[in-house]
Amino acid sequence: MAGLYLHIPFCKRRCIYCDFYSTTCIDRHAEYTKALCREIALRKDFLKTNTLSTIYIGGGTPSLLPIEDLTFIFEEIKRHFRISPSAEITLEMNPDDVSVSKVKDIRLHTPVNRVSMGVQSFDDEELRFLQRRHTSDAAIKAVEVLKSFGLTNISIDLIYGLPGQTLAGWEKNIQKALKLDVPHLSAYALIYEENTKLWTLRDEGVVQETPEQTSLDMFNSLIDHVEKAGFVHYEISNFAKPNFESKHNSSYWDEVPYLGCGPSAHSYNGECRQWNIADLDTYIKTINELHHGITPAQPLFESEHMSIPTRYNDRVVTSIRTAKGLDICVLEQDFGADLATYCLRMAEPYLQQGLLEKTTPSDQKPKGVLKLTRKGIFLSDGIMSDLMWVD
Length: 391
Ligand code: SF4
Hints:
alpha/beta, TIM Barrel, Arc Repressor Mutant, subunit A, 15 helices, globular, binds iron/sulfur cluster
């Protein structure tokens, strides 16, 4: 099993909270698509298998690419890899880009079988504040269009804790999301990232952060409502109807190797982690030099060897965040008794405070599994960082 992530670094305009790498130079899409395909060819052997179980085209805004570019990309993928018949193939789409003709083309010319949509809110004022380019109605219509073409495996993203947002306002968003009857939801608390417009607005006192208790109430309300509607809370921010968990995300958490192509994309193959330069110009130039056998002025990516402590830290972060939790016996088998003992020692205060729980040992899990409790989920960042090994 292996995954392929392709980053499409174009956005019509930048949303105020976003720190993903993207540019508004959409007119460079054809040149970029060619470079991206060259990277797929150059780096295909990074994965030690040629069968892909997931493909995820994210960004940026992949739905800005014309169908010719998407077709070209899939042809290149098929030249180098076998796509498993059960592969999950996701395309991120902005609700504004979902038109009958676009979806028809996607169905006719690509193997995409899942769509992830950044809806963020169903309140037009909130959408304007975030500088999203769609309206609530456009998001609702987009889901209808996707479904009418048989693309029913849809995930929508929501953001809570917007400045001035009330619990009642957030709950309206949840209700509208549930009404769409999609099988997957992701919900994130608004984060103030450095170098974003949102960060500046807060610094200038134009907006205030939502009080922590309100954010906590919103998160709890979300869990209550969506679980009642039949969703499984399978990861801190992710909820799915049974069998609709994102295979792509689950692969990251299960340490399945993946190749990431495009500026800022990350890759992992069990031995090392690599991350590409986050700049369109340098990326295209570097790929073209490599393609022509020229030593590039700058390396395409930086990389980090996965030492045992690094892999242990990754395991802690990726397992604790999921409903499956961190299996202590497997941890000991993979990283030794010392790190397993260290993990349990660091977990002890959180177990006492009811922020973590350990399942009763069983034949299958003889040392139990560490999991976040409902109370602990909201404080997961601090808990995970305390369980990590620091030299
Ligand atoms: S949130 Fe999405 S659409 Fe908005 S700037 Fe970031 S990548 Fe682009």
